[in-house]
Amino acid sequence: MAEPEREVFGADEIRRAIAACADTPTGHRDALTITLLWATGLKVADLLAMRPPDLTRTRARRRDGSWGPIAREHQDSVRARREAWSVDRTRIIATERPGWADKGVAANNVVVRLLCNLRGAPLDASYLRHMLATVSDISAIPRRLHAAGLRNTFAADLYKSGASLEDCRVALGLATVQYTAGYIASICPVR
Questions:
Q1: Strand extents, DSSP E, the chain
Q2: E strand or H helix at 128, and its extent?
Q3: How is residue 188 annotated by DSSP?
Q4: Is pLDDT at 109 greater than 50 in this prediction?
Q5: Cβ proximity of 129 and 46 under 8 Å
Q6: Residue 59 belongs to what H/E stretch?
């Protein structure tokens, strides 16, 4: 049997990266970002497009409108990190974007994202890549943290916990069970 070809991170590596995020508004946002990537398996574009109502206690909405689960073991962590970031985010938006409601759409129909910079503007994928590389260096984990690896880790954990290929397909938002089977085989041994 061939070795898995895609990178999967250990829980300890990811926890060390999250712990390396500073106790600042930026650090709170970055810790939430890493936790969400690990806990939901969302693609970067889905994560960056999220509005506040797109994240519930147990689910996260993708850009196509479908919902993916938040892994049970991460739900409390996601909630705590979201609460810490929400306090900062509310202050940022009140200061930088007066009049914007926290419902996801500003008074002038500009979409307010769950994850924003310190001026209230949406984050972009390049920021995310640089942030993950920086956090990897600070936390001294042996490999560079990246979003695809966090998605792979979510998928591997889900499959190893006993989820069926169909459950994995739905959770990851993949098109077919056949594609899901190939993807799972590329990240962990098939049972």
A1: 59-61, 67-69
A2: helix 125-139
A3: S
A4: no
A5: no
A6: strand 59-61
Residue 63: both structure tokens together:
């850009």
pTM over 0.70: yes
Q: How far is CA 146 from CA 33, 127, 133, 167, in A?
A: 12, 12, 7, 24
Compute CA distances 88 → 70, 104, 117, 153, whole Å. Answer: 23, 16, 11, 29
Query: Between 184 and 103, whose confidence is greater?
Result: 184
Instruction: DSSP letter for 190, please.
Output: -
> What gap in Å lies between CA 60 and CA 51, rounded to an integer?
10
Q: Amino acid letter at 97?
A: R
3-state SS, one letter per residue, for 61-92: ECCCCCEEECCHHHHHHHHHHHHHHHHHHHHH
- Residue 70 and residue 60 in contact, taking contact as beta carbons nearer than 8 Å: yes
> Could you confirm whether domain 11-187 is CATH 1.10.443.10?
yes
Contact 33, 47 (CB under 8 A): yes
Which tens digit of pLDDT belongs to each residue from 119-140?
888 899 999 999 999 999 999 9
Q: Give the other-Cβ count within 10 Å of 120's Cβ.
A: 19
**Residue 69 bridge partners (DSSP):** 59
Count of beta carbons in the 10 Å neighbourhood of residue 176: 10
Q: Which residue has the higher pLDDT, 3 or 70?
A: 70
